[in-house]
Structures
1.
Amino acid sequence: MGLNRTVALVGLMGAGKTSVGKRLAARLGVPFKDADHEIEAAAGLTVAEIFEKHGEPEFRAGERRVIARLLADPPHILATGGGAYMDASTRAAMKDKAFTIWLRAPVALLLARVSKRQTRPLLNNSDPQGTLERLLAERTPVYAEADYVLDSIEGPHSVAVEQVLKELKARGIAVEEATT
């Protein structure tokens, strides 16, 4: 099994983009790339440090450059940061060069997942739930532009992986590799 197009996962932090993405890439036998990790490698700083030292606008500029570079690579699974798809030029590039999947999840599930770690700069405040609710309300119309919407549920990520595989096969994006 392989891909004829990059698959980009979008959605809020905690939706499962990295967890589902890694499993999906393994099932398809293609590389997995995490935009945030690639940004950190390019900057030599963590996402939190970039936000702290340079601010969100500079982080978003770096994110835009890194995602553009990743989209030029051969087909792979790409997990993006929660705000990446909000950038019009990044969104246009993803629509042009990738199949986008919005992993949609309710705030309660997102909060349960993200509260396990303190590595989310946008949630380092006194009201992380309110922040998630606001971000979800703001971003839903844009995330809804993704090619496919998958509701992220509590439970094993293998269920989401199977649903995505079925959709990718139906759309001709996941293809059987030719044997030689």
2.
Amino acid sequence: MYIHRQFGWFTVFALTAMAVWFAFVAALSPGDRGEFQSIFLMIAALQLAFYQLTTIVTESTLTVRYGIGLLAFRFPLSEITQITERSVPWYAGYGIRWVGDAWLFNVSGNDAIEVTFASGRKVWVGTDDPDGLAAILRLRMDELRRNAVDVDNDVASQTDDTAEPLDPEPDETTNTDVNDDSVSPDVSADVESPTDSK
């Protein structure tokens, strides 16, 4: 199993700076500061949700999980057709973004792996270990293909072994009505007539 965690330095820094700014504004604001408490809670929730990105590759799935796991996305490896290393443009930002023809999952940096599925759908998974993630995904995909071929071969061999032999052609039925011209011997011809013996 492959597990890799990438800390979202930019995300954490930006949210922390935002919290400090609102704290400064709240300190200078007279009166009730209740709305600032709601803002602080929202920033804290975003910190927990997006402070890191965890990428998990098992034997059958690719999972992308944010923060403490409130947001997680799971993709079956059996549907992946292509793995490509990509560079995320600076304007794409971080978090969950649409980048033209794919969804981007990212928290930091500009390296990503583009995963293409059989349906044509694409996702970009941000990572600071693109070589390792691409290698393990390709390895799992090859293993799944080999296992699928082995299963097909086993099914084919079992089908051949259990195939019932064809019934032989039935013999032609014997015609019991054929005339028999042979004459059975006349047993009475050998017996002397009583009149002849006299």
